[in-house]
Structure formats: C-alpha cells, structure tokens
Amino acid sequence: MSWQQALVAGAIQGFTEFLPVSSSGHLVIYNTLLGEAGEVDLTFVVLLHLATLVALLFFYHRDVATLWHAFCAWVGDIFQGEYRIRTPERRFLLLAIIATIPPVVLGALFKLLGLTTYLENINLVAICLAITAVLVFTVHRSPEGIYTTGDAPFSSALFIGIMQGLAILPGISRSGSAIFGGLMGRFTKEAAVNLAFILSIPLVVGAGALELASAWHQGTQFVLALPQLVGFISALLSGMLAIRLVTWLARRQHFFIFGIYCILASLYAFAVGQGLVVW
User: Fold this and answer.
1) How far apart are CA 224 and CA 43, in angstroms?
2) d(Cα 179, Cα 193) in Å, to the nearest integer?
3) Which pLDDT tens digit goes with each residue over 179-207?
4) pTM of the predicted protein model
5) Burial call 235-271: b when 16+ CB within 10 Å, e when fewer
C-alpha cells in the first residue's frame, strides 16, 4: 500500500466510523475498486482502530472518567453489601453495559459460525446502505425524546444495543443505528448522539484488540512505515472532524444530509458490484 492509498483509507475509516454512513461498507467499496478484497494489512487495521479511539477519547474523556469513577464506587459499595443504583452516573454505566452486550454477542456469533467472509459482498453493501438511509431519514423526522443517560429505562439501552448489533452488516452504520435506537427509545437527540459515540469506545477497543490478537497469532511484524503513519494521522484528524460534524448537524436539524449521501453511496456500490465503475 502506498502512502497515497493509506491517506485515502485512513480518511475513509475516520470519517465513516463516526458519520452515519458505515465505515465497513465504504472500506468494502474501496477494496473492491482496488481489487484487494480479502487482502488485509493487520498492522494498518490496528493503527486505524487506535486512531479512531484517540479521536473518541479527545472529545469524551470526561464521560469515560465519569463512568470509570462510577464503576469503582459501585464495586466498593457492592463489597459492603450495597447494590442499589443511587446516582445518575451509575445508571449511565449500566445503560452503557446493557447496550454493549448485543453487538458483542452478535459479533462473536458471526465469528464462531464463520459468516464473516460474507460481509465483504459489495451487493450486500448496496442494500445495507439503502437501509441506513431509511434509518437516517427516520432520525431526522423523529420527535425530541425525554430521557437522558441518567434516567432512561434499561429497555431503551437494550434497543440501542440491538440496533448496534445490526451494524455488523457492511453498509449498516453503527452510529446511525445507535442514534436511531436512542431516539426510538425516547432519548433526547443530544443524549442519543453522545451515547452513540460513547458506546463506540468499547466496540472500537474490542475490534482493535481482536485485530491485534490476529496479527500476533499470524506472526505479523509491526513496522511503522510511512503509509501506516500517514493512515493513522489521516484517520485521527478525519475522525475528530466527523464527530464535530455529526454533533453540529444534529443540533441544526440537518441530519437528512447523511440519508441523501447513503442513497447515492448505495447506488454507487451497486454500480461497482455490476462492474459499471472502475478505479
């Protein structure tokens, strides 16, 4: 991979990881155009996950610290025989745990059943991008909810988790489906957007850890060459910009823009799959 290709791949990963347009779907399209489907530079993949994690922590380190403190305090209370959820921070923590379980379970099932190879199908990407467009348009027209992360029912968190789990399909946006799940669970739009990003932290960490374990198992040599460095910086900067952009557009009721984009991306993926577009 050249540094120019790494620059583009990093930007695709950074932008689409957080924009409700599906990073996995875009990477399948990109690899199909390059004729490199199935060829994976594990070192590069691990660095891209690390870059998106750094972008998340840059904006949400206070929330992460809050959840960590709530966890430590709750563990201390449990050892003293106190199990009650006494603070909004602890409810926030439990909501995050509940919402993380479904995508982890679904991801593990796909891995164990050997279904991950089917996730590189460009025609599946085209269909799923169209589904993401529907989700995004629904988010745009959804009324304001009433719950925050400190008072929402656990059923709302479970619904978010189920929607996140669907994002294992390439073309289904994780952030878009999580925000959709949050609004259907009657979260406020601000809470739904923030929660979608915060919930991506354990998933990004988990995905990066799996790729790292796979690289270690295959005996991959981790050499930080220019393409890897360029890809990391590109993913970091584009990821930070994407988080800002989603938050800004959600506040100004312009979320439908992502729906229009997903429709165009779906048509483009279909054209790529039919051989109508070449690199």
Assistant:
1) 8
2) 6
3) 999 999 999 988 999 999 999 898 888 87
4) 0.85
5) bbbbbbbbbebbbebbeeeebeebbebbbebbebbbe
